[in-house]
Structure formats: C-alpha cells, structure tokens
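Please, why this fold?
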Amino acid sequence: MKRIILLLLTVFCLTLSYSQNLYPEKYSDCSLTSFCLDCGDTKAEPPKTLMNELLEKFDKKSLSKIKGSIEVQILIDENGKACLLSSVNQTNISSKKLGLQKAINSTSNWESAISDNKKTNSSVSLVFEFENGDFSAKRRIFDFKNLSNAKSVGSPEVKGTDKNKLSKSWTVFTQQNSELPWDMTRAVANDLDNNIWIGTDNGIVKINNGKWEHFNSKNTSIASPAYNKNETQSVRDLKVDKSNNKWFIAGWDVYRYDNKNWTKYDSINSPINWARKIFVDHSNNVWFTSWDGVTKFDGKTWSIFNKQNSNLPTDKTLGVYVDKNDRIWIGTFEGNVIIENGVTKSLNEKNSPLSKAYISKIYEDKKGNLWFDLYNDKSDEAGIYLLDLQGKWTRISHPNPNMFSKNAINDFYLDEESNLLWITLNGVGVLCYDTNSKKWETYTNENSNVPSIHCERITKDKDGSIWIATYAGVIKLNK
C-alpha cells in the first residue's frame, strides 16, 4: 500500500459559521460552530499512521473488490479530533459498506491547524484511490483563483436500464454548449410565466423562450463567496410562490426576487438561521426548514415552529408540508409530527412508515392522496410511500430492494398528466416509475446522456417538458 501523498497546494481561507458540505454525501453528526477550509499558518496534518489505521478499519471484503476514488471532507477540531463531514464516492462499493465514516472518525488525533499561534478548527479534503487491492491518498488542491467551472460526474452505484429498453433521451445544457454559468447545479423551477430558473454554484439563470438572462453577485444582493469576489454563492434551493416571486437559498441565507427588486432575509431581519429547504403552501405562505426548527412567512409576519413552542422532537428539521386540510406535517431527524389546530401529534404508530423514517418531502395529488419521500440513512424503510384517503399505506417498491436505502432521494415529481413519477438520487441519477404499468426505468451516466450520478431538483414546464438540475449540467426531457 502506498503512503499518503501530501501535495503542495494553493489554497483559500474560508471562514464558515456552519458545517459547509463540499460533497453530496453528508454526515449530520459531524459539526463545528466554525471552521475554515484547509487554512492556517500551519495546516492540519494527519497522523503518520493514518493509512494503516484506515486499512485496519475499512471492511476487508470491500477492500478486496473496490476500485475507483472517494473524496472526503474531514473536520479537524483544535484538539486534533477528526470526523467525516461529507464525501463523494466514485467507486463500486458504497461508503456505508466500506465503513468510511467509522474508519475516519476512529483515527488517531491529527496535528491541528495553527493560525496566529493558536490552534484552530479546519477542514481538509483527501482523495482516496483504490485499484487492484492498492490504496493511496492525496490532499485535494484548491485553486479557486484559476477555477473556471466545477462539476461532479461519478460512477453509478447500480446498473441502469438496458439502453435498448430506455424510452426517453435528454437534452443536456452545460457551460460548454449553452449560457449556463456553472455546471454544478442544484435547483430548477418553472415560474408562472413559463420561464425556467436554474440555480447553480455560481449564479442564476432565467430562460425565457430560449433567451438566457443572468443573475449573480454583480447585479443582485446575493453575496459572493469570501474566497472569490468574482463568483456567486451556491444556490441550494429555489421555489416560485403564487405571486410569482422567486425564493432562493444561496449560501445559507434566503433571497426573494419580486421581478424588480432583491430582498435578503437572514438572522438580522428575520428568524431565518441557516435555511435548508423552501416550501410554498396553498395559501402562499413560504416555509423554510433549518436546524433551528421551521420558519413560516405569510408576506408580513414570521412564525417559528420548534422544539420549545411546538413540541418537535428536535429542531433539526428535514421537510415541511401543509395539506389541503391545513395540517402541518414536519419531518425532523428524530421523528415526524403533524400539527392540527395548534395541537402537535407525534407520528410514531408502529404500523406506519413514519415511525421508521423521516419526512423529506410530501405531495398531495388531485385525488387527495399524499406521496411521501422518507429519509433514513440507517434504515431500509427509506423511500417513496403513498397514503390514500382510507389511511392505507403503499410502498412504491423498486426491483432493487436496496435502491432507496443505499442512495438518498434528493427530489421527486409526480406528473399526473402522464402518470409518471420522477425521482432523483445521489449516486445513481434519475428514476422514472410508470404508476399505471408499474414499470421502472433507471437513467445513469453510463446508459444515457444524463451527465451525473448526482441529480437534484425537478420541475415541469407548461409545455410538458421535465427539467432536472444535476452536478454536471441541467437536463431537459422533451414531452
């Protein structure tokens, strides 16, 4: 086995007040109040025994079969304790099966970064390479001054549908073949005027009848990242309300664009603190999930739902939804609740999947059925479920029983016009489920022109086309 390679690098210093994830696989139990990215007059250094320790902790059977690379972001506190914050896996073995988190978190203490003669919290990125039983590691080089684009392609963890059996193909928009400012995209939405909005890791675009309009830190109130004033903070979520206002989470602040003016909402002028997801209800209230509970904005007044005032199991919230009966469904990382007429009820019935996995997203169809995306990285109960009007649960099962337990669902969209359910997954790509025929199609970057195994938000325009944001461009499926 090769020894760890520590390369000389050009780095930037980025001070964060929240656990900023660089990669799509996130580990929520790893956090620090603040840290900087590979900073310090003296940078954090791994223990000399790191490679041997990792080899000792990795699953032995997986090591004999694994090939490819895994990039990891590791937090090193001022005492040298390491924990895995995020990762991107481009191997044939899942991170969980390899035992990646357990191995990294149990290594000996690092030498902490030192700034102004004081030990400081920092994060370090390493790239692990696996091939023919050999294992090497190198430190990631950050040179954002010369970075002109960013994307993540990856290798799918599962095989997709046979190419000859796929019924659809995608148009791909990238920085190279369009006016897309950045290939790494996370959000896409269709507004009331049938304009497509795309949120990237470096700016926003609006597409109106083929004309692209750009929004960035130069012509909006969205800030640029601390390490490069010429770029724009990453857009993590995007929704359009019923007044055609556009809502963005950029960095961890919220921005509203009313088609003329931009307004920023943060902890100074609102209760918002590190927003994660946006939801617009049928009354045009805008909701935000965060690790400080759920926040609601009715256009004038802010309301907070948290552990203290609403009996949530924890303030770390994942999803929120308001149904046609004005019941508020909230998913947290420690359980789900429903709030009806101001009364909070825990959803922990043994026969319900809500007792085993956490609400990430809900959609109510025209018949009044509720469709759930449930998340739990430690359970096989994660996946898509249907709750009908009689209170009966149906699991939307995939032929691969591990599809949803191994690969987190990022979004789903039920196209009731065509009876197709679209699902995006980390580590795979795009799934399409025909609710009539019960047949599945799986689109990866190996069997289709879907460009990345990491796909995020989904929308449908008024012409019937499906749009999906991916980590290597935006894809459009023509009706």
Notes: The radius of gyration is 22 Å. Confidence is low (pLDDT under 50) at residues 1-19. The chain has two domains: 15-139, 163-477. DSSP finds six helices and 37 strands in the chain.
